[in-house]
Amino acid sequence: xxxxxxxxxxxxxxxxxxxxxxxxxxxxxxxxxxxxxxxxxxxxxxxxxxxxxxxxxxxxxxxxxxxxxxx
Length: 71
What we know:
- By secondary structure, the protein is mostly helical.
- About 75% of the residues lie in helices and about 0% in strands.
């Protein structure tokens, strides 16, 4: 982590992180739904991961577009 990056590169990295959080959130939500009837414990774990990615997404949204979301 000794690389120096300019603000444009930092912004690109944050946008990539946001896109990754969106995709992972979708993936874990889908997994949770798939496991709901066959593996309730696995479904619950996937749901927790979904919530974690949603939290990351909210933080990145606030950093990238301050004040755009309420709550």
